[in-house]
Automatic annotation (TrEMBL):
This is Mismatch-specific DNA-glycosylase. SUPFAM superfamilies: Uracil-DNA glycosylase-like. The keyword DNA damage applies. It comes from Paenibacillus germinis. The keyword Hydrolase applies. Gene3D superfamilies: Uracil-DNA glycosylase-like domain. Coiled coil: none annotated. Residues 7-152 form the Uracil-DNA glycosylase-like domain.
Length: 172
């Protein structure tokens, strides 16, 4: 199965960084396409999108200043299938993307994604004190996968912090 395309451009407000595409995303070519994934519902309920988007509209989110990439490009059933070698390579490629496109916020959709990227452990949700790319805010949110057992309301509250942060800190 082929990797799905990133949605990247300069001057993004938020670059959402996932583990890797699901099998469903690989089949459809769209980010967060598994019907059990709550990503688009979370964005809408957190006030980050004006309406509920569908996975096949992921490219439309570029108009809002939101981009998509993953730390590993290969689709798989679960993140547990990602190899250490894939993470090592993905970490370097991801940092290059963030340096090249310089989003205001790099939102890591899962603590494990940020752990793999940064090499750090035990971080809290939200903005991280020492971003890996100067001038880009590293923001950690829960994975929106249906496999995650966190309540939707808790996830929405954490994602809502991105909107508050962008409005208060960055003046958007």
């Amino acid at each position: 199965m082929e990797p799905i395309s990133d949605h990247l451009q300069e001057h993004l407000r938020i670059l959402f960084v996932g583990y890797n595409p699901s099998i469903r995303s690989g089949e459809t070519g769209h980010h967060y396409a598994n019907p059990n994934n709550r990503f688009y519902r979370i964005l809408f309920q957190a006030g980050l999108t004006p309406r509920l988007y569908k996975p096949q509209e992921d490219g439309d989110l570029l108009k809002l200043g939101y981009g998509f990439t993953n730390i590993v490009a290969r689709p798989s059933l679960t993140a547990a299938e990602i190899t250490p070698e894939e993470y090592r390579e993905g970490r370097l490629i991801l940092k290059q993307k963030i340096q090249a496109f310089r989003p205001c916020v790099a939102c890591f959709v899962g603590k494990g994604v940020y752990e793999q990227y940064s090499g750090l452990r035990g971080m809290n949700w939200g903005s991280q004190q020492d971003p890996l790319v100067e001038g880009v805010i590293d923001y950690v949110c829960p994975s929106s996968s249906g496999l995650v057992r966190m309540k939707l309301e808790e996830m929405v509250a954490i994602y809502s912090g991105i909107k508050t942060y962008i409005e208060m800190e960055l003046g958007y």
